[in-house]
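Notebook entry, structure prediction.
Reason for the run: the old model in the group folder had no record of what sequence produced it. Starting over properly, with the input documented here first.
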Amino acid sequence: MNNPISKHPIKTLTPLLLPLFLRMIAIHMAGALPPYVPSEQISLQCGSAGPKFVRDSRYWGGDIRSIFFPFEHQAARNNSVVKDSPLSSYSGQPPYSSARLSRFKFTYTFPLSAGPVFIRLYFYPASYAPNFNRSQALFSVQAGGFTLLHDFNASATADASASDTIYREFCLHTESGHNLNITFTPSNASPDAYAFINGIEILSMPPYLYYTSPQSRDGVTHVGSENTTRINNNTALEMVYRINIGGERWISSDQDTGMYRNWEEYSAPKEVYQSSRSKDTSTDMNVTIIDRYNLTWKFPVDSMFAYLVRLHFCEFDGDVTMPGYRVFNIYIDNQSAEKMADIIEWTGGNERPVYRDYVVFMSGNPAIPKKVNLFLELESDLLNGYWVAILNGLEMFKLSANRSLAGPSPDPPPIAPAKGTPSKPSTRSRTPLLATVVGVACGILGVSVLGFLVFRRRRKVKSTASDGSSSLPTHLCRYFSLAEFKAATQNFNQSFIVGVGGFGHVYKGHIDGGATPVAIKRLKPESSQGAHEFKTEIELLSQLRHRHLVSLIGYCTDKNEMILVYDYVARGTLADHLYQTDNPPLSWGQRLQICIGAARGLRYLHSDAQGTIIHRDVKSTNILLDEKWVAKVSDFGLSKVGTATMSKTHISTAVKGSFGYLDPEYYRRQQLTVKSDVYSFGVVLCEVLCARPAVVHATETRQMNLAEWTKSCHHDGELDQIIDPNMKGKIETECLNKYVEIAMSCIHDSGMERPSMNDVVRGLEFALQLHQNCGERNEDAFASVPGCTTNESVQCISETIFSEINDPNGR
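New structure, fully documented this time:
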């Protein structure tokens, strides 16, 4: 096994962090060293005159008549005011028991020594009588030359998180001889806007807890790149997630290691390594989705920022004692971050905590910042290990860009007026009403203009200017000139053709000075596909990124051409390795892995993408295989997009697809559903099992549908007649039973009786485990193994011994 430490150095226990990590693993130990003691610690209760004791042994000193009284930037009559918090559960509870508020800028100054610090801001967005309505709290916060928050809508943020209070944690590096200034500035967007703060906490941290040591030769692995990234002192960080994976409760700051960090439910410092997520478990946490053999989390984050993702691991299972027992792959933002992760190999033994750091950039539309989903997936490598993946804890930090960490505030939830109560304008101020009216009018105008532009773009997809500019927005993906593609393919020389389809020819070429191999798909004039499919492919693939979806690089519309360019996928299509080929037959393990990969890609389209996406043309020639045999679903020209919630169960549309793969229910009713993709994928499963095309040419005058033929043989117990001869004696009987069960359920005549793609993934992963239990490690030397299929055992397989997959309607 290759040692990954050489490429990605492990964070080991330095003397400075030793107390931190000893406390983390003080589970089977009689004692531990004292926790980290900060050299700087300020806990400020804003708007208060005296210290108050709080549960975590911190004293919150008031800012009135103290050295931390804020500097007012206006005349005395415009100074900030202090208010006690309204009567609630937070009354008398620092740091939320009082607040400082102002419609003008004010600054706190803190004399600090040089080094990294935590800055924690505490907000209780309530209405502070008589003049500060909670909905008018709109302000920015700057600290140490960084913008931490910009036009921060406190009430909308609290409402969106269903919490009465807001807690924000930042990290930045203070310089020697410079005070730390934290400035609160009301927004110019409204004359009634004001800034407020309830509590400020500043705490020194170990120097290289999150920052890169200048003595370190290596930086942090940059996901999706061969480069590394250094977290230098000129970078500010914002903590966005700190989670105890597998924990059953949140860990409060007083249980941390002297840094008073809060670990959300599911997270902890010491306890973080006691619990881990490694089984098929359901959860109501909205950031987590658990599969049987791989773990997937979905984290909403701001686009156009880079993120530091820290994963905490510790092996406590006494049965996992040697390298190679628990091996898994790590994917972040659907890109490979770590291959064959092995905790024992990293640490040398049990009960030894370790963390791994990764940096990933979350792209988006720079003109319209919004939330995007960052996916984290741990995939069990059952070919190389014996145990499923684990994760004990996670921390995620946003990294500053252009000295800013500010992201968009969430939209406030709509408030319905009381039934029978007419709405009336406020008598206190007419200005906000006027601003609202103007804003609504501008919004309607903007939507109208946007609608017109979208309509124009739909009408002019195929039109191009003589200079090569396209009506398709170039921000979606890279735009190429026709000259670049001619150079990459020697003017579309036929010797460069690597594939032919309904769209046209596919050429292999090289771009970027020959450094990057790509697949170039050129629409032929007589193709039945055209501008609509071309546009659909660009708009979908440019916004989708997943390990098991083909990656779109760019497009060209010069001189009325329609050309798409993708990452080059070296091994061609799945069909190329099943039938009518000189390629050696795929092993059963390879076939299962390929099917699982393709199923995961479809599951992402159905469940995890922005809105439900129905591929509508799933077939073996649209499943590509890269150099490492990783399956990638391709060709999205016929795809349909539903709503994010898919409240309608189907999309009424004309029937399109490929003969032999078409869902018969879709064909009859012209009602497209995600179960239509499931049917097509079931046909692919039949192809993989039988090594035959979807339409079998039995004689010169007769064609036979493979799906129907497989169902007939399955019904009669005659699967041995059509199963790939290369697989006989090489598939464990229980594995074959499970596989055929999945395939038959996918091609059920009734869509309601078919499983979801999530259930298909689970079933195939279970089939892979059964295959591994059969003892196969090297199929080239595979002999007849007890419990594996023979001609006689295959003949005994019929529909009478199969049960339906649980919950065939999906989730």
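Summary: The mean pLDDT is 77.
The old model has been moved to the deprecated folder.
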